[in-house]
Design goal:
The structure holds 2 protein chains of 2 kinds. Chain A is of the alpha+beta class. Chain A has 5 helices and 18 strands. Chain A has helices at residues 2-17, 24-58, 62-88, 213-219, 400-403; strands spanning 99-111, 136-139, 142-151, 154-162, 168-177, 184-192, 224-233, 239-247, 264-275, 279-290, 295-300, 306-326, 336-354, 360-380, 383-399, 421-432, 435-444, 452-464. In chain A, helix 2 (24-58) runs antiparallel to helix 3. Chain B is of the alpha/beta class. Chain B folds into 2 domains: 14-179, Nitrogenase molybdenum iron protein domain (Rossmann fold); 186-296, 3-Layer(aba) Sandwich (Rossmann fold), CATH 3.40.50. In chain B, 44% of the residues lie in helices and 12% in strands. Chain B has helices at 2-17, 27-37, 60-67, 84-91, 138-155, 160-184, 201-207, 225-235, 251-261, 281-296; strands spanning 20-24, 41-45, 71-74, 103-105, 192-195, 210-214, 242-246, 265-268. The model of chain B is unreliable at 7-16 (pLDDT under 50). Chains A and B meet through helix 3, strand 7, strand 8, strand 9 and strand 10 of A and helix 3, helix 4 and strand 6 of B.
Chain lengths: 471, 297
């Protein structure tokens, strides 16, 4: 029926655009033709309606009858209408709009310790949003994702993080090549670095409500620099990928140096494959180097006053990561299991200046590490349980200002020797691909002498275009 | 020595260029490509017959295989939307990107059923292009095969004649098999069935089987026991003969229904490799019909 009226409309359009001096005879002929078309369609529709009634009386199930009728309708008309459809196909100016989706997140948090006083003792604060969030009900970051192919060679993606307190942060905005050939890919703009395993994934795809402690302490949650990435995939049946990134060092461990050239760079290699049809794995090794200048953090000195400290020098980090996924016969619908772990090792070398003794500065170096391992098991369709263990080692930290006696350890309470630990358990329920509810409990020893019991009740909804998730 | 080296290089490059490297997302298209390509097609199938094609992990091994493929054959109609785009984008292979000759979507060649008249996620996991499980109608296999043969001939002109000959041969055997299947399936015409997931509309359309209900309240949504009981009460008067599920569906709903409604539960292979008997396209349909006929006795 729609098709008929559409073609009528198209025909009317044609009529309207005809020059006014067109012969009356032609108009008449056209009108007659349209009248005939209408008659023909009405007859056909009547016949179909009759069939529909027949079909309805045959089966009690109304839905069923409709599908049958629809199918017959499509079958009947498809051949004759093909030409009509093509002529009347609407050319909408919005057909090329990007794929759009929105992620809604929020949670109810019950935290024993004050989240505003949250710190990971023993580690230089990253200035990232690493605290467990507000107490009580709170809205998480809403993400607006826009992506589309730009032309045959490029694809663009923009991810806007809408903060609950207002304001928009450009989380990701990048272009990527659609196959340069010979296994090469290029990406540029602001994107999550491919170092480690979890770094590239967006928080809504994580198996826990928050990032592992190692990510919080060493990357300020997640590394997303402004820069360029080149990757090369080896022509082997085993997955072997190499990549390099250069950037400006916008966020931790960088300090957004006001400097030309490259301030932060990373290289990484990934190796992956299958064991039978039920198992898949990937391991990786990454190196991240940064040269922050005046990377500052506030601390409380021995007199109780706020002191501003700043680090300039080199930050070098290795990450080893591995993930293994199991699902019987590769079918993850009923049961599946995922095990992942990462190990971080960082060395920082440079000078640390403090306002606690005027603008004094002296050598600073640290050797620190951290790791986590986590598993998530789907024990029945839509339900998963997960466990995670986090551990950080504050290792050796040599502060020249302390060694020379100008300041004491008490002037750097945030760098006090402490090995943070955390254990986390979670249960999540995903009634559909677009919905997830999660209950998570963690016992967190991040801050020295302040064990925190954290309870999260979280929701994640995704609206719009169906996203594809990386391994 | 030099000549030997050149000879070696030549054979290497010959080996590399002889025929087509094909990446098939699901087993049915892998099997079909083997029928058409014969010895010239090096076929990799990304998933197994017991795998839910809606939920596939973008495994590293798949990215590695897509990197070297000359042709990626998928069902399309959004069936692989959750993983194939990632694979293709990470493959660094321009030949198989959407819109290129090396990217073939089977669903474009057949008449789609259950095309939704409205698009709303409230209706569950619906596909805008229609129900994507087209392989359960053997007539669709022929339509896809015809278009696929043309595409393979286009990509690998050197072996075009052989592809066409292979497909001609396949078509003859396939048409004979359809006649045989249709004859043996005559008792199934008009039979009422209950299905767990909307996985078989093309099979029912072909054999004239009537689906009176599905166990999933919406596509992709797992039913609760209360809902199953409701479905059982609703269809009691229509006397379904059996409850059908695909091999990759979770077994509980169909088993519950079978036990309480006292009708047999049938597990259909759904694709090549979906059961021990379904070894290739022919035995896949043999096995499907055998299961239905046995339950209908």
């Amino acid at each position: 029926m729609h098709r008929a009226s559409l073609s009528m409309l198209a025909a009317c359009g044609v009529l309207a655009s005809l020059p006014a001096q067109a012969a009356d005879n032609d108009l008449k002929a056209l009108r007659e033709e349209i009248a005939q078309m209408r008659q023909a369609y009405e007859q056909r529709i009547n016949a179909l309606e009759a069939r529909l009634i027949k079909a309805e009386s045959k089966t009690d199930n109304a839905d069923n009858a409709q599908t049958v009728a629809q199918q017959t309708a499509v079958q009947q008309n498809s051949d004759q209408q093909n030409t009509v459809q093509q002529a009347a196909a609407p050319t909408q100016s919005n057909s090329f709009n990007p794929e759009m989706s929105m992620i809604l997140q929020g949670s109810y948090n019950n935290l024993k310790q004050d989240p505003n006083a949250y710190q990971i003792t023993g580690f230089v604060p990253t200035l990232g949003e690493v605290s467990p969030g507000a107490r009580g009900f709170s809205l998480g970051e809403s993400e607006l994702v826009l992506s589309a192919n730009i032309d045959p060679n490029w694809r663009g993606t923009a991810i806007l993080a809408l903060a609950p307190e207002g304001g928009v942060e450009m989380e990701n905005a990048y272009f990527e090549s659609l196959g340069l050939g010979n296994g090469f890919s290029v990406k540029g703009g602001r994107f999550f670095s491919s170092i480690g395993y979890l770094n590239q994934q967006h928080s809504h795809a994580w198996d826990f409500a928050d990032a592992p402690l190692a990510y919080k302490a060493f990357l300020g949650n997640q590394l997303g620099d402004d820069g360029v990435q080149v990757r090369w995939l080896a022509p082997t049946d085993l997955f072997l990928e190499f990549g390099a990134e250069v950037g400006r060092g916008r966020t931790f461990p960088g300090a957004d140096n006001n400097k030309n050239g490259v301030s932060q760079g990373a290289v990484f290699a990934h190796l992956g494959g299958d064991v039978g049809i039920s198992n898949a794995w990937r391991v990786g090794l990454s190196w991240l180097g940064s040269s922050p200048k005046d990377r500052s953090f506030d601390d409380t000195d021995s007199t109780g006053a706020t002191a501003s400290n700043s680090f300039s020098g080199k930050s070098r980090m290795w990450i080893a990561d591995g993930v293994w996924k199991w699902s019987p016969n590769g079918n993850s619908t009923v049961h599946n299991f995922k095990l992942q772990g990462e190990y971080f090792k960082r060395r920082e070398d440079g000078t640390l200046a403090s306002s606690a003794c005027g603008a004094c500065a002296a050598d600073y170096n640290s050797d620190q590490s951290g790791w986590y391992v986590q598993g998530a098991y789907q024990f029945m369709p839509h339900w998963r349980v997960g466990l995670r263990h986090d551990a950080l080692k504050s290792g050796t930290v040599a502060i020249g200002l302390v060694n020379s006696g100008m300041l004491g350890f008490a002037d750097f309470p945030q760098l006090a020797a402490h090995d943070p630990k955390r254990n986390t358990a979670m249960l999540d329920y995903s009634p559909s691909e677009f919905t997830r509810f999660r209950l998570q409990f963690a016992r967190d020893d991040s801050g020295i002498g302040a064990t925190d019991n954290q309870l999260f009740l979280q929701y994640i909804f995704s609206l719009g275009a169906h996203g594809a998730h990386a391994f | 020595m030099k000549r030997l080296f050149f000879l070696f290089l030549m054979t290497l490059s010959l080996a590399a260029h002889a025929g087509l490297k094909v990446f098939a997302t699901v087993p049915e298209w892998g099997a079909l490509t083997r029928e058409i390509g014969g010895k010239h097609a090096d076929v990799f199938t990304a998933t197994g017959g017991l795998q839910d094609p809606h939920h596939v992990e973008a495994r590293p091994s798949l990215i590695a295989r897509a990197r070297n493929a000359d042709l990626v054959i998928s069902t399309g109609a959004e069936l692989e939307v959750g993983w194939l785009p990632i694979i293709l984008r990470n493959s660094g292979n321009p030949r198989v990107q959407p819109g290129q000759p090396g990217n073939f979507e089977a669903a474009r060649t057949v008449r789609m059923l259950e095309v939704p008249t409205r698009l709303d996620r409230a209706d569950g996991d619906v596909h805008a292009g229609g129900n994507p499980h087209i392989q359960n109608d053997p007539r669709n296999i022929l339509k896809v095969g015809e278009a696929l043969t043309a595409r393979m001939a286009q990509l690998d002109a050197a072996n075009a004649a052989e592809y066409q000959a292979n497909f001609k041969n396949f078509t003859e055997r396939w048409k004979a098999a359809i006649v045989k299947w249709e004859a043996s399936a005559a008792p199934l015409r008009g039979m009422h069935v209950v299905t767990q997931h909307k996985a078989f509309p093309y099979l029912y359309d072909w054999l004239g089987i009537i689906e009176v209900a599905t166990l999933e309240p919406k596509p992709g949504v797992e039913p609760a026991v209360s809902y199953l009981a409701q479905v059982m009460a609703d269809v009691a008067t229509q006397k379904p003969r059996m409850v059908i599920r695909a091999a990759w569906n979770s077994p509980q709903p169909a088993e519950w229904f079978s036990e309480h409604a006292h009708i047999p539960a049938v597990v259909l292979p759904f694709t090549v490799g979906g059961s021990d008997q379904a070894k290739d396209l022919f035995s896949f349909f043999d096995a499907t019909l055998a299961q239905l006929l046995r339950a209908n006795k």
